[in-house]
Amino acid sequence: MANKFKIPAQRQEYPGSDAQLKPQAEFITKDYIGSKKLLGKVALITGGDSGIGRAAALYFVKEGAEVAITYLKDCEMERVDAEWVKTWVENEGGICRIYPVDLRHSSECQTLVKTVVTDFKKINILVNNAGKQWINEDLSTLSDEQWLDTFDANVHSMFYLSKAVLPHFSEGDTIINVSSVNGYLCPGNLVDYSTTKGAQIMFTRALSNQLLEKGIRVNAVAPGPVWTPLQPATLGQTDPKLVENYGEGAPMGRCAQPYELGPTFVYLASSDSSYITGQTIHPNGGMMVGG
C-alpha cells in the first residue's frame, strides 16, 4: 500500500503550518456523512488548528458538535491555520471559536477553560492533542531545558487542562488524549518525546480508573506516522531529507492522512464507545500490534 503521493524533503519553521505542507494534507473525506452522534456536544480540542486536531474538529462538526480549538499564542502561522478551520466550520453551518494560548502554563489553561465555558456554556469533550518533539541522538547533549519543555508541552498541559475541565464535566462526558506509537516503540532519537508519550498512556489509564464511578470516560489514541506540520517543523529542522517520503517504513508503506484518524475520535467521543475507558486505540498502520 504505497504512498499515493510523494513527500519531498522539506523544512518549516516551528511549529509549522498545514498551509505550507507539500503536498497538502487531507482532513476529511468528501463522502463522509455524519449521523448526529455528537449533536448538542461542545468539544475543546488543543492544537485544533492543524494536523490530527484539525481532522478531529472537522469530523466532530460533521457529527453535530460545536468546537473550541486552541492554537499557539503569538504564532501567526497557527493563527492562519485556525482561521481556516473556523471558516470551514462556519461554511458547514457549524460553530467554532478559536483561542490563542500557551498550554505549558497552568494559569493559561484555567483561563482557557473558563472562557470556553462562558462562550459555550459547557464542555463535554476534551481532546488533549497539542504537543511537540525534537530530534536528539545523544542523551548527554539533551539539555535540561528541552527535557522540561517537552514535559511542559506534552504532559503538564494535559494535566492542567483535564484538572480545569473536570468540574464542568458530568456523566457521559469524555477525555481523549493523543499519545503516539513512539510511546511504545521508543526510538532512540526521541528519548524525551517517547517518555512523555508513555506518561500520557499511564495518565490515561490512572485517570480513567479515578473517574469511572462518575461515568466519565478517558481514552487515548496512539497514532503512527501522520502527515502533519510537526514533521517538517521538527524532523525537517534537523535534516529536511528526514521528511522525504515520510512514513514509508511503516508496514503499509506510507504515512496516514489526518482524515484517517478522524472517525477514531468520533468513536471515542460518542456513546458508540460507552463501554470503553482506559484504553488506547492504535491507528499506526501496523507498526505495532497487540499493545
UniProtKB/TrEMBL annotation:
Signal peptide as annotated in the record: none
InterPro entries to which the protein is assigned, alphabetical: NAD(P)-bd_dom_sf, SDR_fam
One Pfam family of this chain: adh_short_C2
Keyword NADP (UniProt): no
The protein, known as: NAD(P)-dependent dehydrogenase, short-chain alcohol dehydrogenase family
PANTHER family: NADPH-DEPENDENT ALDEHYDE REDUCTASE-LIKE PROTEIN, CHLOROPLASTIC-RELATED, OXIDOREDUCTASE, SHORT-CHAIN DEHYDROGENASE_REDUCTASE FAMILY (AFU_ORTHOLOGUE AFUA_4G05870)
The keyword Ligase is annotated on this UniProt entry: no
Keywords: Oxidoreductase
Family: Belongs to the short-chain dehydrogenases/reductases (SDR) family.
GO molecular function: oxidoreductase activity, acting on CH-OH group of donors
